[in-house]
Amino acid sequence: MAVYKIGILKGDDIGLEVVPAAVKVLDAAVARYSGVVLEWSDLPVGYPSYEERGETLPESTLQALYDLDGWILGPIGHMAYPKDDPRAINPHPILRRNFDLASNIRPSKSHPSLPCLHQDVDIVIIRENNEGFQPDRNMYKGMGECMPTPDMALSLRVITKRNSSMVARTAFELARQRNGKKKVTAIHKNTVFKLGCGLFIDTCREISKEYPDVEFDTAVVDTFAMHLVIRPQKYDVVVTTNMFGDILSDEAAGLVGGLGMAPGLCVGPRYAMAQATHGSAPDIAGKNIANPYAMIISAQMLLSWLGNSKGDNEAVQAAKDIEFAVAGVLSEKKCVTPDLGGTAGTDAMGDAVCEALGRL
């Protein structure tokens, strides 16, 4: 019997609604398999934690995560946190760095029943998560930005062979697992960033030799951005650096319905964190209308990653069942949220997915 220890970190605003829906779906999925057990740990994080404990990421939460296999993190509304209190911190960069979550996996998939700019889209963009230009995560100490004078700002980009290798391997392993084209495309701009992008693309090319069964090609980022809009169907798994991936994954989400349809999973050598791409949406929080799709599929990706990591066929199949059940609910459109053209609430859509699982 495989036991998976998973944390529940609801986050802020609509996280309090979409995360419980995702947890409920995972429970319904594994209930059909006697060899899979999920052990949940509900841990405080975000503004609710700040109100109750005076800090947005308690040390007790951070330490508890080390004993888990992975966790579900709801959206964090850190822009609304008090700016003058050092205990009101954004948990994202700390979680990513502390647990070496170097690979951010962001799929974009079209559904025939939903309005999309393109149909037959099934792309996964993997961005490096802990380096790049982002100054909140590319330094051990200090920040990767400075202003020597009031009229000059400098931003430093960090690219390492280690993290480039990690995201490349994640891409190739995922290409092997998917039913797609078994193809990896590495995105760069080495025509300009000859050293930074050069190191990244050379590392990807080196890793590709370990996967002769997976096709490998490269593309310059601006050219790829154009082709992504025109012919997204030609791509399978895409791997790139942090900022390029952040931008391109939002573009890909726009092709299939927006950020409500944009799940995500952050993975490293030991841990994984399910984290949807969208924000905390305080304007609709508490109204029971938030679309839980991205959070449910993020949790589904977590279960799949854990199952594949342990060679657990039942957990992998349970994850596939979730994907199938969600697609069925979307195709019927009877129990989907208003942004998807329905009238159902967040909890009702989650219940519909659970009911669809029960019918498998």
Description:
The protein folds into two domains: 1-107 and 260-360, Isopropylmalate Dehydrogenase; 117-255, Isopropylmalate Dehydrogenase. Helix content is 40%, strand content 18%. The mean pLDDT is 95. The strands form two sheets. The protein has a ten-stranded mixed β-sheet, with helices on both faces. The chain is globular and about 55 Å long. It has 360 residues and is α/β, with parallel strands linked by helices. The protein has helices at 15-30, 46-53, 59-65, 91-98, 161-177, 196-208, 221-230, 242-255, 293-309, 313-332, 346-358, and strands at residues 2-9, 36-42, 70-73, 103-109, 122-128, 145-149, 152-155, 183-188, 215-220, 237-240, 265-267, 272-274. It has eleven helices and twelve strands. Helix 5 (161-177) crosses helix 6 (196-208) and helix 10 (313-332) crosses helix 11.
Helix and strand arrangement:
Layout: E1 2-9, H1 15-30, E2 36-42, H2 46-53, H3 59-65, E3 70-73, H4 91-98, E4 103-109, E5 122-128, E6 145-149, E7 152-155, H5 161-177, E8 183-188, H6 196-208, E9 215-220, H7 221-230, E10 237-240, H8 242-255, E11 265-267, E12 272-274, H9 293-309, H10 313-332, H11 346-358
Parallel strand pairs: 1-2, 1-3, 3-12, 5-10, 8-9, 8-10
Antiparallel strand pairs: 4-5, 4-11, 6-7, 11-12
Helix pairs in contact: 1-9, 1-10, 1-11, 5-6, 7-8, 9-10, 10-11
